Diadenylate cyclase
Amino acid sequence: MAGLDDVFGDLFSSVDAVALFSPSGSYYERFTDLEDEDDDFELLVVGTGNDVGADTFVELPLEFDNISDRIRFGLEGALDQDIIDDGDMLACATSVFSDDIDTVSRVRADADSRTGIYDLFARSRADPEVVKSVLELAIELGQKGQKGKPVGALFVVGDAGKVMNKSRPLSYNPFEKSHVHVGDPIVDVMLKEFSRLDGAFVISDAGKIVSAYRYLEPSAEGVDIPKGLGARHMAGGAITRDTNAIAIVLSESDGLVRAFKAGEIILEVDPEAY
Ligand SMILES: Nc1ncnc2c1ncn2[C@@H]1O[C@H](COP(=O)(O)OP(=O)(O)OP(=O)(O)O)[C@@H](O)[C@H]1O
Ligand SMILES: [Mn+2]
């Protein structure tokens, strides 16, 4: 049949895999039916949860509002789990304007252009759930601020022993003898209280809050951070090059949350978009 199908059909012609981002159950089933008939594409589901019980699933740590971040994460996860191969062509179906899938992107999986976003969660020393919780905390703090005023915060996650060795206390450590973990309900309250004070939070691989008020002293040589940002981001970036920690930084000045790994910015999210 000639017409729009001919043109738009190019988007999904001869793809190696179809990635469905958070599909509804019935949408997913339409694809599994197709797959049974004509088994020449790989079918995978990407989402924050495997609600449809897909056999092949890549877990998103959060619903990326930015579509290219969302797709990039899915692709990196699929490559990492050997669901797809470098060079495979994918049709990625996701929702942009509504809750239903309304958009298809034709994307080639390119192992060379990995951003490391998947690594940030799946291959950090810290537990992915811990990374996710801290990221959510930073986003929430960015949305709410402190009594309506913007706040900044710096969380260093994982490799805590080494991070402690490369930092010094700015004040007494309120977490000294406590066993508080990110994700505990009390953490929200405590962090809001402490975030208006200086320094970094140090969090262990397992999510224990090891310290607040740490002044980081990594060597900052050769760490590049965006213009307009200062010491907090520099210290956050640099500590991730000096140790195997990652850093999640909420900027007081531009309100964005950024994640650093190995001295590089890996993720930049606007809390207001969540
Ligand atoms: N080396 C460091 N370790 C821990 N915290 C730091 C360090 N340097 C700065 N900070 C914290 O960051 C705060 C803001 O510093 P600065 O304005 O230079 O950072 P920034 O990168 O511009 O961040 P923002 O965008 O939030 O302003 C400081 O008040 C301090 O609490
Ligand atoms: Mn600043």
Summary: Residues 152, 154, 198-200, 215-216, 229-233, 235, 251-253 surround adenosine-5'-triphosphate (ligand 1) (CB under 6 Å). The longest helix spans residues 128-144. The helical segments are 4-8, 25-37, 67-80, 117-122, 128-144, 160-165, 185-194, 231-242. The chain has a mean pLDDT of 90.
